[in-house]
Amino acid sequence: NAGVTQTPKFRVLKTGQSMTLLCAQDMNHEYMYWYRQDPGMGLRLIHYSVGEGTTAKGEVPDGYNVSRLKKQNFLLGLESAAPSQTSVYFCASSYRTGAYTGELFFGEGSRLTVL
Amino acid sequence: AQSVTQLDSQVPVFEEAPVELRCNYSSSVSVYLFWYVQYPNQGLQLLLKYLSGSTLVKGINGFEAEFNKSQTSFHLRKPSVHISDTAEYFCAVSPMNRDDKIIFGKGTRLHILP
Fold it and tell me: Parallel, antiparallel, or unpaired for β A110-114 and B19-21?
């Protein structure tokens, strides 16, 4: 049971470099989310998607872009990484129709360090 | 709009003692309520959820929570904690209308003392 898979799990970047985090889910969920977790800040929503081909901004979208070309994948991009983007990133997914409750299924996280 | 307040950022408790982690929320619409647990260096996993019906909800690992609509609270309890309960616990609300975003509290770190 793969569930939600994030790659890579760890990455170190230099300021100004770009990278993409990949999230893949095999539960046929419509909704997908990207959160960042920082000490004392809890989880903050970066971007989310309610379906293939759609994305929307969350609480802290600046400096990030996303794409959802396929229902099972949700990509998070950093075009020009900054030290303030050092964080642990979590992808999550949920149902939209039928069994919707808002319960989220999380990946194991991607730890990003920007030097 | 919704908001979630976890009243304690850290809670130390002796092993085998009871514990309560507090969560209050505000919302203009009806919500589903959740507690998630995050063990060290892992992702979040569902501990328990309140959708409807009985206000006392039982979850995994002996945890339970009680939904109190009048006080807009959803406190998490365990009668006897174990060292393996060391983790961070997050309260979350999900609006039933699906239009508003799911909101998380800032988390409570549970420290189990030997």
Answer: unpaired
